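Appendix B. Chain record.
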Amino acid sequence: MTKTIDSKWSDKLSDRYSAEWKNAIDIVRNRFKERYFAPIDEMIKHERKEIRTRVGFIIMSIDCLLIETLNQFLFGIEDTNVKYNRSNPDNNFKYNSQAFRDFFNHSTNFPEFKSTNELSKIFYDEIRCGLLHQAQTKTNSLINIKYSEMVRAVDNKDFNNGIVINRNLFHYALEKEYNKYFKDLENPESTNLDGDFLRDMCNRKMKELIQ
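Structure tokens predicted for this chain:
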């Protein structure tokens, strides 16, 4: 984080009713817009077809980063491993894939992933880990803009045989999720899945980033 943003993050934000939160929300919003959403939008709408049709892996890789980051903001954690790790005595928080489960369960823009937690794990294994570790999707899974559904089974029957992600629909849903988060931050009473206040969690996360 730049020193400019660092200097603008007020100590008064420990009070979730502080008037400083109006400016703070703009800081967080602009951070993600300028670094991620605006550049991706340029790629999706690029005048050269050979560019805008070949950026699926780039977009989905960044979207996976953004999912994990937003989940960290929701729970006020510095790193996903802080909450999700094998030493956690609670089986609900032993694997990083469970961070994606919690994100999709918290979201309002990914109804396809709410029907079963298994789909979020498949997405984590096939898409997130495939792209970030091998620079490719795993097994039969695909990323394209061919189908009208955000996510569908490769064989149209069983998600375990691979999934197809419409990267534009997925990205636009994620952008809506971020916008919803910023809107929720306007209400000092908004909470996450654990009942923690979003402003408190955001303040904790931002303080960790600017240390």
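Further analysis of this model is presented in Appendix C.
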